Amino acid sequence: MTDTINMVVCGLGGQGILFMSSILAQTGLDRGLNVMGAETHGMAQRGASVVSHLRFGNVEGSLVRTGTAHYLLALEENEAYRNLPFLSRGGKMYVNANADHFPREEIRGFLAKKEIFYRSFPAGSVAQELGAALSSNLALLGYFSAFDNTPFGQEELRGVIEKISPERFRQTNLEIFDAGHERAMMEKGA
């Protein structure tokens, strides 16, 4: 792992950006990393943009500068496009979107030029199939955890979800996280 890991988590109000950010931050803390974060969520209750910056390791400030994010996790496709400038060359992007339509044609050149690794999967549909339509955040996090190029693995993230989820949601949260992870493993052929 590098000295610093920069992540941007984005979506719309009500999608669980702050809970997802809490899981990631706690995972870093449990690993013994310094963690700094900042959120912007002006009209989040009305479905407006929510962006969370997370920095792990040798960091002195909480905001991720443009062009320095190693990871972008987006719970909404348009928010992924809006926050693309944060990604560094060779950054990685995971998006709650239909893989058949992501990314838009006009974005492909930018992604190729910046050598951005991207994956998308319908996290919202997976959560809805399990009866928790508002938990696409956990499905996307499970999906993200299956890839080798991510800073935190499935076991670490799952352990934090188990630890910080309210008891009445714990089992459902774990099931949705596991479903996202399993979907990625099937895609990878593992």
Describe the structure.
With 190 residues, this protein is α/β, with parallel strands linked by helices. The chain has a single domain, classed as Pyruvate-ferredoxin oxidoreductase, PFOR, domain III (Pyruvate-ferredoxin Oxidoreductase, domain 3). 41% of the residues lie in helices and 24% in strands. It has a six-stranded mixed β-sheet with strand order 2-3-1-4-5-6. Helix 1 packs across helix 6.
Number of domains: 1
Q: Find the structural class using helix and strand composition.
A: alpha/beta
Mean pLDDT: 93
The tally of strands reads 6
Helix content: 40-55%
Tally of alpha and pi helices: 7
* Strand composition percent: 15-25%
Radius of gyration: 15 Å
Mind describing the biggest β-sheet?
Answer: 6 strands, mixed
Order of the strands making up the biggest sheet: 2-3-1-4-5-6
CATH superfamily: Pyruvate-ferredoxin oxidoreductase, PFOR, domain III
Order of helices and strands: EHEEEHEHEHHHH
Return the CATH class.
Alpha Beta
Q: Can you name the CATH architecture?
A: 3-Layer(aba) Sandwich
Distance between the termini: 24 Å
Low-confidence stretches: none
- CATH topology call: Pyruvate-ferredoxin Oxidoreductase, domain 3
The 3D shape can be described as: globular
